[in-house]
């Protein structure tokens, strides 16, 4: 199996960069592109459908030796390719490799969420460059302001059918778990987007009242039914965000601060939150002093020098 090892390799697989080494997927073969992408970033269960445990372990070891190395790859990918990824997600190519689909309309609705560009955003949503992109006023990042609404609409379009698939046949556990995972992944991304727009004075500008009205009944139902499970937890977080209950925003802001690593000194051992100054190169992290910036640049499991990139946004 040909292993992906770097940010440029993922860009090639996503069709964002040309390749001379044969990893390209032809335009239109989007189901195949998604399958290949999930071989490298999907859950263990997906990989084991196509590979033995030994191959899976080799794949995992070759892809990323550590979480720190994974963050290095994702940071560089975001710095170079995040705007193109969002643009491709919002203007999806139409799959032509759907001859085996029994219902093309349903397949296309599912593909609007279950596609490699959406999955890439799920992978990088914790990377500080993702938050930087969303708060950027640069025209190259303009699509980020529409991302939450469009993803919420796409999820609302499939909720009723996915709910049916989760409950109609209790014996079909594989299908039920597949749609639970797909819904959870999409809702988790909405939750992350919500943390970045929590201080917007008009939340209707982020997710319209009509879309919230379509989503909230399903989010509340999934929160109750799957309480204590991943789908239930993320459904609760987005329910809080959409409900406009402002006193609950304090908890959401705690998540935001932890996620963005923006409101506290970037040196892991420091908790200072006042008089922070931003890194002039990447603008994704802030420090309380030059000394702490220098220390973070060269020390720790993942020194900042490995994560620091200039961006166009």
TrEMBL record:
Keywords: Metal-binding, Zinc, Zinc-finger. Residues 267-308 form the MYND-type domain. Signal peptide: none annotated. Pfam families: zf-MYND. GO terms for molecular function: zinc ion binding. It comes from the Eukaryota. This is MYND-type domain-containing protein.
């Amino acid at each position: 199996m040909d292993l992906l090892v770097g940010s440029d390799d993922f860009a090639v697989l996503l069709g964002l960069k040309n390749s001379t080494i044969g990893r390209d997927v032809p335009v239109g073969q989007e189901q195949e592109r998604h399958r290949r992408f999930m071989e490298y970033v999907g859950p263990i269960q997906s990989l084991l459908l196509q590979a033995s445990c030994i191959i899976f372990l080799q794949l995992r070891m070759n892809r990323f030796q550590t979480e720190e190395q994974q963050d290095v790859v994702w940071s560089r990918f975001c710095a170079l390719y995040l705007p193109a990824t969002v643009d491709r997600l919002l203007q999806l190519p139409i799959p032509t490799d759907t001859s085996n689909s029994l219902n093309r309309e349903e397949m296309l609705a599912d593909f609007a969420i279950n596609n490699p560009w959406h999955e890439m955003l799920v992978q990088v949503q914790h990377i500080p460059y993702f938050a930087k992109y969303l708060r950027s006023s640069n025209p190259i990042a303009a699509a980020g302001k529409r991302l939450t609404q469009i993803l919420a609409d796409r999820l609302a379009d499939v909720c009723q059918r996915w709910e049916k698939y989760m409950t109609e046949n209790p014996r079909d556990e594989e299908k039920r778990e597949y749609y639970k995972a797909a819904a959870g992944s999409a809702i988790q991304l909405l939750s992350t987007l919500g943390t970045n727009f929590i201080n917007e004075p008009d939340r209707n500008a982020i997710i319209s009242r009509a879309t919230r009205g379509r989503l909230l009944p399903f989010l509340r139902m999934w929160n109750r039914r799957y309480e204590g499970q991943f789908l239930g937890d993320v459904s609760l977080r987005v329910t809080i965000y959409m409900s406009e209950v402002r006193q609950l925003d304090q908890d959401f802001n705690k998540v935001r601060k932890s996620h963005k690593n923006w409101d506290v000194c970037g040196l892991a051992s420091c908790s200072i939150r006042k008089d922070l100054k931003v890194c002039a190169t990447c603008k994704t992290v802030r420090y309380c002093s030059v000394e702490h910036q220098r220390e973070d640049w060269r020390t720790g499991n993942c020194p900042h020098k490995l994560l620091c990139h200039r961006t166009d946004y």
